[in-house]
Predict the structure.
Amino acid sequence: MNAPAGIRYLIDSPPPPGVLLDVAPGVRWLRMPLPFSLDHINLWLIDEGDRVAIVDCGIADEGTRQLWQALFDGPLRGREVSRVIVTHFHPDHIGNAAWLCERAGVMMHVAQAEYLLAHATCAQVAGYTDVALREFFRGHGLDDSRSDALLEAPGSSYRRMVPDVPTHYRRIIEGEPIALGSDLWCPIRGDGHSPEHMMLHRQADRVLIAGDMVLPRISTNVSVHASQPDSDPLGDFLRSLERYRVLDPETLVLPSHGLPFRGLHVRIDALQAHHTARLDELTQACGTAHTAAELMSTLFRRPLDGHQIWFAIGETLAHLNHLVHGGRVVRVLDGDGITRFVRV
């Protein structure tokens, strides 16, 4: 696989699903399948002597659990799980956490906002219900049939991929190091993709478990959600990226999707340039008033399935809200109850 300009991959191809591969001292790479167009997630196992810490878990489907069980019966046989660490609440990261924690008799380690939002989404309360989502989508130009299809799309149901969330946890706080074996890993917060995403940085040899905050080829999904319709998650995300420039440019980045790489600052530059270009395109498209549903095609020019539309409309709104917060675009609420956006 060819790397983007300025990016140097640690290895040219990933391990097969369920197979462990050493990527850094005491750190092993585990890839699990996902039933979406983004068909995998990278998980990380950190050695702690005769025990092992798990960072992120995969979704809670039978295939993923069979791969985990094969590991426990094979390469990890006789080794205890010391802890389960979750970078954020999205299903591919937290889905199996309850199952793994119960099996190992350990607590999940996760940031507080991620823990609470996982419970709210799993239980469908507050602004995290299908009814709230349907109204939110309708208010931005999706008719009822498309909104219903979106909610029925594979991968749209959080509860199917996260059937349970642990009822106890240990809180991860930015800047409070976590001792894993003989090493200290420092949590670094990221905003925009989720409310309190935590990366893990081992400063001693410049290794960064980046979660979804910095990916080598694709851009991180940044979406507006029904519970915070006026938020500016893209602004939060871009500010987070800028904070990461204090890390060494030669940091080994272990992302949740794609291949491990070096070239952190180059990738930050590319992501910032990407969003700047998308914002300019949207500004031009708002010469006349349009809904977010109409403007999706400005950012996403290829055909999208239901699962992809879910992310596409949220990301389109993230860019539009950022333009509103920056004074480049205004919202117009028409008599039909639909929100439209028009350039200032």
Summary: The first strand starts at residue 8 and ends at 9. The chain has one domain: 8-281. The mean pLDDT is 94. Residues 8-281 form a domain with the Metallo-beta-lactamase; Chain A fold (CATH 3.60.15.10).
